[in-house]
Automatic annotation (TrEMBL):
Substrate binds at K79, K103, S363. The lineage of its organism: Bacteria, Pseudomonadati, Bacteroidota, Flavobacteriia, Flavobacteriales. One of its GO terms (molecular function) is nucleotide binding. It comes from Flagellimonas sediminis. One of its GO terms (biological process) is L-glutamate catabolic process. Keywords: NAD, Nucleotide-binding, Oxidoreductase. NAD(+) binds at T203, N234. Residues 196-427 form the Glutamate/phenylalanine/leucine/valine/L-tryptophan dehydrogenase C-terminal domain. Transmembrane segments: none annotated. This is Glutamate dehydrogenase.
Amino acid sequence: MTTTITSEKKQPKQGMLDNVMRQFNNAADIIELNKNIRKILEVTNSEFIVHFPVRMDNGEVEIFTGYRVQHNNALGPYKGGLRYHPTVDIDAARALAMWMTWKTSLAGLPYGGAKGGIQLDPTKYSQDELQRITRRFTYALGDNIGPELDIPAPDVNTNAQTMAWILDTYMSTKSPNERSKNLHVVTGKPIGAGGSEGRDRATGYGVYLTIKFWAESKNTDLKGKKFIVQGFGNVGYWAAYFLEREGAVLTAVQDAYGSIHNDQGISTENLMAYTKANKGSILGFAGASPMDNGDFFSLDCDICIPAALGNQITVKNAHTIKAGLIAEGANGPTDVQAEEILLQRGVDIIPDILCNSGGVIGSYFEWLQNRNGEIWTLEEVLDKLEKKMRESYFKVAQKAKSKKVDMRTAAFIIAIERLEETYVQRGIFP
Ligand SMILES: NC(=O)C1=CN([C@@H]2O[C@H](COP(=O)(O)OP(=O)(O)OC[C@H]3O[C@@H](n4cnc5c(N)ncnc54)[C@H](O)[C@@H]3O)[C@@H](O)[C@H]2O)C=CC1
Ligand SMILES: O=C(O)CCC(=O)C(=O)O
């Protein structure tokens, strides 16, 4: 099934899809992208919507809806995470799949872009139920995913365990002789199930690295800088952990349950230990005071790291942000109008497709190891990741300077130009 995404002029809808289309069109206009290639990149290649039944612990059967959108595979197999959240729908999956295409292209990976997930609130289900839901979703997707076709990974509310269930289910559909050739059908697996050292922290480490490169280019030190983090999951925690090790001070955190604040500093390790014992919630942590969610983004700080959901920084709060840098750990946290306000106010933004690209780069390393029968050390993985992220960061900074555009537009230009070159070289649109 192929579905057309209409451009923002035809579809004046707010949300992540509107955002990514505006970002794409802005960069495509600047480089006067070949109109035929533009037509291709404006649409998704394939979209799968599956409804599947799962038996709950109480014996009742519930029907779930899952999505997988494959945006583009000109550069290689589709790649991108799976999200379990009530906001997952076809438009969210389309937007997130498109961001993956730009992200993998920018990072110079041999991948295209995809994303998907299940529309559900995982807090309402037991671990056993989540396992059955994940396995039935994997059967429903069937051979529309695959190690050389489309490779899922963790995203919001999915993790290494989810990937292990997918791997196990997918492998069970293959003949015994084929099973070991399918280890790279998902990345972000537990180490014992074929995962890579360092993939757990790769996204947050990458967020930290881009902030470090920003500081380098501004000739400033991260020591003593105050930062706030929205989302204290995989990305938010690891970003905070590495920044804290550099001497920066975490002063506030917001998650799905509420917000906490301590100007003297919040220990990332203590907070993580607390949330693990507190069903994932930061609320009640003794090392900080609760605060209103509405005041979170306007807190006095140097660096703001949105690492939760999309469309969090909007025209409603962009004027109040005090941070001089926004490092986008999340996908699509800043909407286009908010970005205009922030740029006018001189706030720097490290865009998502650069800032959080450590995750998919880490996934690429896992995929390569599985494919080649190799096992790399944590040190090797983090070294290679730093090298790749440094290259991407300064390429974007250089492009922003030469084209006199902001970092996001520069990142999009690099990503789109790589895709354009591929199509032109293949001779499809001479
Ligand atoms: N996990 C990965 O490797 C990558 C994740 N990302 C992006 O990073 C973001 C976070 O992903 P993960 O850390 O993996 O998810 P996660 O599920 O590990 O953590 C999500 C965090 O966000 C919080 N949250 C959820 N809704 C919220 C709300 N309305 N307000 C404030 N906080 C809220 C949750 O309580 C939790 O602390 C997402 O946008 C994801 O797409 C991007 C690249 C890779
Ligand atoms: O690791 C991956 O393959 C993709 C991670 C992801 O979903 C993202 O970068 O948004």
